[in-house]
Design a protein that fits this description.
Shape: elongated
């Protein structure tokens, strides 16, 4: 009896061990499956890759194996869901893969709509590859978690997706240095989380949406180098976080709203190379703006005599306008003026002495009606 009981006990113990080991194996297998990326995400990435060609750096050489969350260059995954959360592919980088190639990247092809199958994407950076063409897939507007869209420095053409305003979490939209055309979609003003908007150096036309002031979180609006027309929306002056506004090299008309001079953090205000008319608001000369470029417009009247201790300009460029009268005496009260250019106007009178005029050369004052004094010729008595 005792021997029989011992045998039963031993058999039960072995059975328990086998069950325990089986459970551990199942758990380990389940953990392995969970920690790998979804097969659908992997398939979408491979579809995306199939539309691109990158022969020099080898950024796609690591895109192999079943787990796209582990070791695939430029792919990042959410640590909890193991869904693909980011694609970061930059053609200009200091990473070892670029240092080994001893060159910058060149990628051709187009951005496949398969990228939209990665429904948990929060970041898409496909930047500075110089050769990627085609359009922006319109389905991008259906990625609800997208926070960062950066396609700068390619040859992307077509229009900005009309319903891009659906991306309510978007913080950065950088489409600069491409071949985009069409208008700025009106829906863009619904991007209430946006902090950085860069559409520079494209072929965008039409007007700046009148209600762009709804973008209360934006600090940079960079639209230079396009074919934008119409007037500057005054609603921009209601964006209290706005620090950099660049609208140069467009076809913008009308006057400069004086309320720009009352903005508390605006530091860069670049309107150079437009068709802006009217006079310079006096408030601009005693504002928070430190880089003011109004050159190459149709501005008339006098340079406002409203400088004071709050006036601090690293750049003050008023060249190539239709300004008349003297250089105002109050400019001597400015706390700092680094670069000043009033050339190619109709100014007249004696150039003030002292700072900042003692470090400027004649090109800053050339081609005016009758400016005189150092660094130009002596004034006639």
């Amino acid at each position: 009896m005792i021997y029989h009981t011992k045998i039963l006990y031993t058999m039960d113990t072995k059975k328990s061990v086998v069950i325990l080991l089986s459970n551990v194996f199942v758990l380990l297998l389940a953990a392995t499956v969970v920690q790998s990326c979804l097969p659908s995400d992997r398939a979408a990435l491979l579809e995306f890759r199939a539309k691109l060609n990158e022969p020099y750096i080898g950024v796609f050489n690591t895109w192999k194996g079943q787990d796209c969350c582990n070791g695939w260059y430029g792919v990042s995954c959410d640590p909890n869901t193991h869904r693909v959360a980011g694609i970061t592919l930059r053609g200009e980088s200091e990473e070892p893969i670029f240092q080994k190639a001893k060159r910058s990247g060149l990628m051709t092809g187009s951005i496949s709509p398969s990228i939209c199958k990665l429904t948990r994407l929060s970041g898409i950076i496909i930047a500075d590859w110089k050769g990627i063409s085609g359009g922006i897939p319109s389905c991008i507007e259906n990625l609800p978690f997208l926070r960062h869209l950066d396609l700068v420095g390619n040859k992307i053409s077509g229009v900005i997706p009309a319903n891009i305003g659906k991306l309510l979490r978007l913080k950065v939209l950088n489409l600069a240095d491409n071949h985009l055309y069409g208008v700025i979609p009106p829906s863009i003003t619904r991007l209430v989380s946006l902090s950085h908007l860069d559409l520079r150096n494209n072929n965008i036309s039409g007007v700046i949406p009148r209600d762009i002031g709804r973008l209360k979180m934006v600090s940079r609006v960079l639209l230079s180098g396009n074919k934008i027309s119409g007037q500057i929306p005054e609603s921009l002056t209601r964006i209290y976080r706005l620090a950099d506004l660049e609208l140069s090299m467009n076809r913008i008309t009308g006057p400069i709203p004086g309320s720009f001079g009352k903005m508390s953090v605006l530091a860069t205000f670049n309107l150079g190379g437009n068709l802006i008319s009217g006079e310079i608001p006096g408030s601009l000369m005693a504002s928070s703006i430190s880089n003011l470029n109004l050159s190459g417009n149709l501005i008339t009247g006098r340079i406002p005599n409203t400088f004071g201790p709050r006036s601090y300009f690293t750049v003050l460029d008023l060249a190539n306008n239709r300004l008349q009268g003297p250089i105002p005496t109050s400019i001597a009260a400015a706390s700092f003026i680094g670069h000043l250019d009033v050339s190619h106007n109709h100014l007249c009178g004696k150039i003030p002495t002292g700072s900042p005029f003692d470090h400027l050369d004649a090109t800053s004052f050339a081609y005016n009606t009758c400016l005189c004094g150092k660094p130009l010729g002596n004034c006639k008595k």
